[in-house]
Write a structure and sequence with these properties.
This protein is α/β, with parallel strands linked by helices. The chain has a single domain, classed as Response regulator (Rossmann fold, 3-Layer(aba) Sandwich), CATH 3.40.50.2300. The protein is built from six helices and five strands, in the order E-H-E-H-E-H-H-E-H-E-H. Strands 2-1-3-4-5 form a five-stranded parallel β-sheet, with helices on both faces. 30% of the residues are buried.
Length: 132
């Protein structure tokens, strides 16, 4: 499966570099956008164009939980309409985190826009296992 677009939102520059490399090397996305902080991530999300046809663009938002300013959860709580709009436009929001805390996993599924929970590091297999 090739995704139309993947947006990485994670404050760790090295992690973003590694994840971008994997996605590019395996040609798993037509476009990869990276934000190393919450503000840049929100700019990317606000600029998501409408889906090209019937919400079938098959795109992803890979969102870290633990970031400065806002956690990934706080970001969704603060801007729910942005994530709902992204979903209407063919994006699935997936948490991508180092956390294996069961409370984080349970909290993730309290948000209807969160469609998956993956542990870092991102792998080709994990990306291919995401069903759209």
């Amino acid at each position: 499966m090739t995704f139309k677009q993947i947006i990485l939102i994670d404050d760790d520059v090295a992690v973003n570099y590694y994840h971008r490399y994997i996605i590019e090397h395996e040609e798993l996305a037509e476009t990869i956008l990276v934000a190393d902080n919450v503000d840049d991530g929100m700019k990317l999300l606000f600029d998501i164009p409408p889906a090209t046809s019937d919400n079938t663009d098959h795109s992803l938002i890979l969102l870290d939980i633990n970031m400065p300013k806002y956690t990934g959860f706080e970001l969704i709580e603060k801007y729910p309409s942005v994530f709902e709009r992204a979903e209407r436009y063919g994006f699935r929001t997936i948490i991508l985190t180092t956390s294996d805390n069961p409370k984080d996993l349970a909290k993730a599924y309290e948000f209807p826009v969160i469609k998956g929970y993956l542990q870092k590091p991102l792998t080709v297999e994990k990306l291919r296992d995401i069903s759209l």
